């Protein structure tokens, strides 16, 4: 396997099964609880990584992939829930930026005063320049790699199952179903969609200096009654393979 392989990540089988089916000369490797498939697609060395769900799983899988395989780039992709009412199921969001939307410092409240997540406006920066600061209160956004984003933009017109937009992908170990909370997060971070992995992948990748892009398909959107469709995961995988071909040949 080339040390210039491109890693494509997915949390769940429905987000990576089609990718694995498209690979030639496939081998499978398990490290800890994380699975990696090695193969080629259109002559390109690819590693499909099933990260499992959640921020910790995704961060660990990313560090393992970088340490073991020294990839050329990482694409974190899969399904997501819509925050933007203008997005429909099967629309794809290119993560111009990703953010951890659950790193917060809550306001002080005494016993009996309750809790209100709509007042949690102070965000922690997990990669502060000054690590001696015990409370680095600021929003941290991880920007997409320019080369990967350009490749995605080039092939966007080929996608026929919805529209392709650029936006902010919000990540957290949380599944938000409160419409007021979703509107709050969209106001605070500008989120287009939410999911559970991309920001932790970006946080690890940036520290290793590995190019990374998050790509998410809208699988459901509670803000406009868009019902969950698992086939959206297949559509995203097909789109990502086109992005990989464009990136590898640019």
TrEMBL record:
- Pfam families given in the database record: PNP_UDP_1
Q: Where is the Nucleoside phosphorylase domain?
A: 6-225
Q: Which InterPro entries match?
A: Nucleoside_phosphorylase_d, Nucleoside_phosphorylase_sf
Return the protein name: 5'-methylthioadenosine/S-adenosylhomocysteine nucleosidase
The organism named in the record is: Vitreoscilla stercoraria
**Taxonomic classification:** Bacteria, Pseudomonadati, Pseudomonadota, Betaproteobacteria, Neisseriales
